[in-house]
Amino acid sequence: MAAPRPPPARLSGVMVPAPIQDLEALRALTALFKEQRNRETAPRTIFQRVLDILKKSSHAVELACRDPSQVEHLTSSLQLITECFRCLRNACIECSVNQNSIRNLDTIGVAVDLILLFRELRVEQESLLTAFRCGLQFLGNIASRNEDSQSVVWVHAFPELFLSCLNHPDKKIVAYSSMILFTSLNSERMKELEENLNIAIDVVEAHQRQPESEWPVTLLDLMIAKLVGDEPLTKDDIPVFLSHAELIASTFVNQCKIVLKLTSEQHADDEEALATIRLLDVLCEMTANTDLLSYLQVFPGLLERVIDLLRLIHVAGNDTANIFSTSGCVKAEGDVSNVAEGFKSHLIRLIGNLCYKNKDNQDKVNELDGIPLILDSCSIDDSNPFLTQWVVYAIRNLTEDNSQNQDLIAKMEQQGLADASLLKKMGLEVEKRGDRLILKSTRDTPPQ
Length: 448
What we know:
Layout: E1 9-11, E2 14-16, H1 23-36, H2 44-66, H3 75-92, H4 96-104, H5 107-121, H6 126-143, H7 147-157, H8 160-165, H9 171-184, H10 187-194, H11 197-209, H12 217-228, H13 237-255, H14 271-287, H15 290-297, H16 302-319, H17 343-354, H18 359-367, H19 370-376, H20 387-399, H21 403-414, H22 420-425, E3 428-433, E4 436-441
Antiparallel strand pairs: 1-2, 3-4
């Protein structure tokens, strides 16, 4: 005698197919959740049935991973898996009850394991990519605004899923996995992420390949936190940072001018422009580390681009009132100018670091007319705290053991183009020796 069929479940008074065992029944349920989103919950039994299908269908994927010849036979299983993920994804939208029911069935662990199997297949089959994307969307939705789900997702996904997905050639997979990462982050998990900076780098690299995607500013902040932390970089840390310094520097060289978008209030929240600001901060901290400094001092185009950008924002700030204009008064919290606070100061700081005990870079700044530009940038500016101090620092590094740069500043002072009181603050003074003007510098200053 055949076993009795389970009774149909109800969702907001609508009959749900039972048992849910074929593709059409799954599609009907997916559509039902989509129509009822944000309002309705479902019995746990429905999600159990969907999970059973997911588990059964995943066996075919496991087989294909062991035997690549089986990949061509995955079509029906991938269709079922895709529809399962779509159903679960829709059920989780702004419904914590459904999120909790699905999580408590250990569906998250099953989903993560299946997604890792997808990555292992290494094929470009469109049906596989669709299932892959839907699985990540489900993880993003179940974690959304649900701390318990975020915790479970993190336990199962970190770090393997992120390391696997963030360098995937499909831009949607990269975007969805980034979404899961950001959704799940809290202060405790940020510490874990600090210990695995390769994930942060993967997100940065993904953006370089796909510049239309959002910049991971939070992950750049993690790199800064690691560089300025109480604990110095270890011998193991240095090769990691060196191997990725090229990425940070090349991205800045190629895209830094996008920061000029911030001169328009309509672009005040431009993600790429804001990320450029953080890239500059990373470069400042990298060049303050002697192990990283020598590499970046000879990075092609970096010093030239920094001087060029300093000139552009200096001119832009003088031409019209905008985010880069000199401010003699404190701005209100939330004022648009706050997003670029310290940007000019940090450009000058980076120039100073790149010229530290480096004659070639000192001469290059001179050739690019960077010294008058730096001196002209020195003014009271609440948008650039410590601007004068960074100018002092940069000029010291530019003139150390460099008679040509010293002569230039001495002549500028004689012609009234350089402020004598400013030079005095720098610990510099102009001394006439016969027919020559000598700029004396007596201090030894390490990179800051």
